[in-house]
Amino acid sequence: MQIQVAKRLKHTEEYYFSKKLSEIETLNQTGEKVINLGIGSPDLPPHPAVIETLHEYASLSSTHAYQNYRGVLPLRSAIADWYSTYYQVSLDPNKHVLPLIGSKEGIVHICMTYLQEGDEALFPNPGYPAYAAAIRLSGATGVPYDLDASNGWLPDLDALAKRDLSRVKLMWLNYPHMPTGATATTTFFKEAVAFAKQHNILLCHDNPYSFILTDRPQSLLSIEGAMEVVIELNSLSKSSNMAGWRVGMLLGAENRINEVIRFKSNMDSGMFLPVQMAAAKALSLGREWYDELNESYRNRREKVFRLLDTLRCTYDKQQVGLFVWAKIPVDYPNGYALSDEILQQSRVFITPGGIFGTGGDAYIRVSLCATEAVLDEARDRIINAKTNL
Ligand SMILES: Cc1ncc(COP(=O)(O)O)c(C=O)c1O
After folding, report:
1. pTM, 2 dp
2. Which GO molecular function annotation, any one, does this entry have (predicted)?
């Protein structure tokens, strides 16, 4: 039987990491295990109280049924309290909050809810590849906007305003930015909200890294009047060490939440109740939780800086988030060449910046999701491979 995939998949390949992990798996069968510094999947566990809550609710006989599509009130209230405490944003848990099965699904839900053929959507280059993929899946046309180190990796809104924006319905923003670790200023956030209002664009802010190595978490929704034009995604994957649990959230005006539910409720059902209750617990932890987490990420980041020095890469020491973004030496054509060389010679995997768009070609990205000992070993392997050449 000849069966063709749908047109919408024509330019959509299996996710880069999904393919790369298979390659690493194959390498692992032929010798020393590869040290994977590619993915931002926290290796540290969630707080013990989170696990206890999961156990407690999972052991009840009444918690195994389907859950409602909007998430349980204790989770929505915990999300609203978290936003009030840390971001100074006031949300009504009954109107402005939608728990998600990870924020990645939210990217697709948003694109499928608002975009169709003929529409355009702006996305960052370099940026998280899921934005461009979700725009493509919706049938709309993705329009990359370039980010550059010289501009603090912030979009040039004046230059964008000079383009024809008549078809642009939606713009993806992500600060702290992945992969560059750049942060946005409040002034920029205000300008972005004004830009969205002026051009009638829905600003979709993806905010999973705001607690990692930052002094102060920031939400785009904290800007006055933002609720009119902004929706925000957030996640427990990074800040609560719960990547595999798949808990994210969408925050925005009541109408926006109701619109996204029209798509999402036809795709999936509510999360397992014990997961929702444990997530609520995670969000209620005090500031000490984030301080402790950041203490270990700070120490790891120092190790990564040393590893990057060994590779003769340059980097901004002020960057935040779960990775270090670094410029490669000029004698490599691009980050893929350096990444491949390290993988083959040292059995260490580091992400080539080019997978985040052409703006990342001259960069690599190193994850902080490895212990200091593993990071030391990765550096030793690289040094040894160089001496043995
Ligand atoms: C910028 C960005 N957004 C969203 C996600 C997805 O996070 P989640 O685990 O909540 O789906 C990631 C994960 O790596 C990310 O880097």
Report:
1. 0.96
2. transaminase activity
